[in-house]
Specification:
Distance between the termini: 43 Å
Largest sheet: 5 strands, mixed, barrel
Shape: globular
Structural class: alpha+beta
Number of strands: 16
Radius of gyration: 23 Å
Strand order of the largest sheet: 2-3-4-6-5
């Protein structure tokens, strides 16, 4: 039998789940592993069909990583959190298994489960999308030249004092960050990182020398992209991050605090997707050195 640590239970209890369920027995069909968590007590996320005697539905199942759901399995869940959600715009049941066993066959089930999928569908409310709508701005028809990764290097783009803009058709192959969002100064012309003063209960901007009651939240991460000619790393800040991740930075921050698994899903969904990017290349001074910085200004998906 698998039980999560008290630390994991405390983290998962902060997720906005709808129903705590005991005794659920499911046949797991066509499981696809979406990824692993980064906690010491590793969790894995699977997208799969689940079925009982009467009903079949799509599900997202989170459970400890040392249990293999890579093929048809009978999953006996003694305790879990259940809610309704969406995966790639399709409805699914979200199951966070806190106490579960993988059985070889239905014949190993000693007693009938208390809950059925039909009963869960009746009592769990439909998911409410509270995320802010992200308006996708068109990148096409800007009149900018198209570049390949090879041309970005061979043409020495971004090595002059003048900012250079260009378009790049590419596939995202990796995302890198320490924290995907950061608390920022409320002055629109600043956006410098702020730190919380625990005594005053306010946020201090070391650049503006001002205190703020609350910070703004901005994206900050890098992406590795590739085309037929090579790969390159690009910087993504607030606006580009919002377009790539598909949500506002404040919503990403809330997920980071309350539902890290949910945020991991949104981030992993960006990988292997094709985008048309509007990029800016410029020289940036780092200490006594000058280096080329290429950042994403706008992004639109080419997968549709």
């Amino acid at each position: 039998m698998v039980r999560l640590s008290f630390g994991e239970l405390e983290r998962l209890s902060k997720v906005e789940t709808i129903l705590e369920v005991t005794s659920l027995i499911l046949l797991v069909i066509y499981p696809v592993k979406l990824g692993d968590g980064q906690d010491a007590n590793k969790l894995s996320l699977y997208h799969c069909l689940v079925a009982d005697n009467d009903t079949m539905t799509w599900a997202l199942i989170t459970m400890v990583a040392d249990r293999d759901l890579s093929k048809f399995r009978v999953l006996k869940i003694n305790r879990c959190f259940v809610s309704k959600t969406f995966h790639e715009k399709s409805p699914a049941i979200n199951i966070i298994a806190l106490d579960a066993e993988i059985l070889g066959a239905m014949s190993e089930v000693i007693r009938e489960p208390v809950w059925t999928l039909e009963a869960l569908n009746k009592v769990i409310p439909e998911p409410v999308n509270t995320l802010r709508k992200v308006v996708i701005e068109p990148v096409e028809n800007t009149g900018l030249p198209f570049k390949t990764v090879e041309k970005i290097s061979s043409e020495c783009i971004g090595t002059t004092k003048v900012d250079e803009f260009f378009l790049l058709k590419c596939t995202v192959i990796g995302i890198h960050f320490d924290s995907i969002v950061y608390p920022a100064c409320q002055d629109g012309k600043c956006s410098y990182r702020v730190t919380e003063d625990p005594v005053l209960g306010k946020w201090f901007c070391n650049k503006c020398k001002r205190l703020w009651p609350t910070p703004l939240y901005f994206f900050k991460f890098s992406i590795d992209v590739s085309d037929d000619t090579g790969s390159i790393r690009l910087k993504c800040l607030h606006k580009a991050g919002k377009l790539l991740i598909g949500m506002a930075a404040i919503d990403a921050y809330k997920l980071q605090r309350n539902d890290q698994t949910g945020l991991d899903w949104r981030i992993s969904a960006v990988k292997n997707k094709k985008f048309l990017l509007k990029c800016k290349a410029k020289l940036k001074k780092v200490g006594d050195e000058k280096c080329k910085l290429i950042s994403v200004v706008l992004a639109s998906s080419r997968d549709k």
